[in-house]
Each structure stands twice: as structure tokens, then as C-alpha cells.
Amino acid sequence: MHTSRRAFVILAAVLGASSYADDGYIAYGGTAQLMNVEHSTVQMVRETVKIYCGPKYVDVKVTFTFKNHGEACRVPMGFPDYGMEKYYNVEHPESVAARSAFQWFKTWVDGEEVEAFLMRDKKDVDLTWHVKHVEFKKGQTRTVVVRYQYTPSIFAISPHMFKLTEHQSDYVYRLDYTLHTGASWRGKIEGCDVMVTFASSHLKHGVNLKPWPKLKEGAEINFTRYGKGAMLYNTRQKPAWDGKVLRWTLTNFEPDTKDDISLHYGLHITDWSKE
Fold it and tell me: For residue 14, which of 160, 176, 186, 225 is within the disulfide window of CB 3.0 to 4.6 Å?
């Protein structure tokens, strides 16, 4: 893996904001990550990600296993915290203290809760880091856990797609999980499980699991083609769905951008004339 560069490893349950910055509330988190140093001995052996998509919040618990293949070291790890509304109505957001888009955030090392401090990203004004330092003895394996909640991210849909009336509005939820930045740890990731469960309100119309369609540049996707139970994924690997859990399982891999996960689900159409 790439260990000769400044490492910012993001492993995230995220909403990619670059294309959807004006479409609704956007927030995401991510992985424990090697920060500001070049390190060649610490490997992310495996990760287990459990995401619950509720009607009012998204709950994420990530468990990482790290192994130090070298001498004792102290590693600064950061966890990304991205939110397009953290600095809403702030005239000069770069001049104010770092803010979190999460409702709350906690982290543990080998079962002991540790404190993380907020640090602004130098380039992206909407990106904050939860930073902590993890000590490794020679050859030591450690378990790092991160847990947090945030408001569900939404993606507003163009009204003409559904021929909506002036009294109607519509949106879908969007969840992203970024894997490719895990490539800056030593060696391969031996195992990765990403498991997503949903509130019953998101499943009342069933599940129509489909890959994200190929679209011409500038074209908009028509969700009506897939029905209200549409669940569209955009990633290299097809997930497994057992009626309760949506799961991606990867083994012995060096992640790249094609492994990143994007999921649209929970189509919602509101008729305000009936409210």
C-alpha cells in the first residue's frame, strides 16, 4: 500500500457532498486513520462496520483491528466528520472553532474509552477530524472502536421526474461508505464487513435492490422506474440481502475508489395538502 505519502485514511459511512451540496442536510463520518505521518508498520487487519438507518438518525459502530509489525510507536489517528451545514450562516467559517456534524461521538481503544479532540482540515472548510493518539508496543495488536450518530442525509429529487403537484415534495435517503483511503495502511486489509440495517419505515414497500444505472452526463435518474422500495447501490461488489441485513464482505484487498459504497434508499413523497 501507499506508505510514502502523507496518509489520510478515510473509511466512512458517508454522504458524498460534491454533487449534492444544495439538496438537503449532508453529514458523514469515517474511519480511524493514520494522520500527518509516514508509517510503514501498522496494518489495518480488519474492520467491521454496523450501520443502522433509522427515520430520525443514523447510528454507526465501527470496530477496527490494527497490528503493529514493527517497533513500539505512537500513532495519531483521525476520524473524519463532514457536514455541509455545520457552518450554515457563518460568514467566515474558516475563522471559527471546529464544529461537529455528529449528534455525538465516542471512541475506545481495547475497551477503554479515550478522548478525541477536534481539528480543522487545512483545505476543506466543512471537514473536521476527531483525533486521538494510539500507542503500540512492538508486535502489538489493538482494537479501536468508534461510534457516533448523525441526522440522515437526504437527496432531493427533481419534481418533474414524478410529475408532482405544487403540494408535493419528494426525496430519498443517501448513505455512502468510503473504503479506498484505507490503502494508506501497511499491507492488505484481510477482512472487511459492512452491514446495514433499516428501520421498518424504510422497508414498508419492500426492497428492490438494483445497481446504480449508467447515466449520460447531466442525466437524472428516474426513481419511479424502480418503485418506492428502490434500493440502489453504486460500488464494485453486489451486496447480499437476507431480508434484514444488507452486507458487503471483502477479503485480502487493497481498496480503491471502485470499492467505495453509495446507497440510495427510502423514497419518500409527501403530499402537503393532506398534512
Answer: 176
